[in-house]
Design goal:
Elements (H helix, E strand, L loop, with lengths): L1 H19 L41 H19 L3 H8 L3 H13 L1
Helix pairs in contact: 3-4
Length: about 110
């Protein structure tokens, strides 16, 4: 008997909550106000060169950001001729991290 009363209370609460919630309109893309804010990697989603969105990755885009950082680090090393200490300072990483990036790139 006690369970039946408890069960009816739950049903009543659910019915009450359903009446308070308004259904979400299924808007067509033409009528949806889309604001392209991009992310911290690129300013616009619609012009992003990445094949996968950073927000779709489980790591939150950390892997994508790391790859971009590594590419830029290698580019600066090749074009500007910066040494390991300069690269580490400008990218905010340790010298050992820069050495790992260089070694990984040379083995690929």
């Amino acid at each position: 008997m006690r369970n039946e009363a408890r069960h009816s209370e739950i049903k009543t609460e659910k019915r009450g909550n359903r009446g308070d919630v308004e259904p979400i309109a299924d808007l067509l893309p033409d009528y949806f106000d889309y604001c392209d804010q991009g992310c911290d990697l690129f300013p616009s989603c619609l012009e992003c060169p990445l094949t996968h969105c950073r927000y779709d990755e489980q790591t939150g885009g950390r892997r994508t950001a790391t790859r971009l950082r590594d590419k830029e680090l290698l580019r600066q090393r090749a074009l500007a001729g910066k040494n390991v200490a300069e690269l580490a300072k400008s990218f905010g990483v340790g010298k050992r991290t820069v050495q790992r990036i260089i070694r990984r790139a040379s083995s690929e």
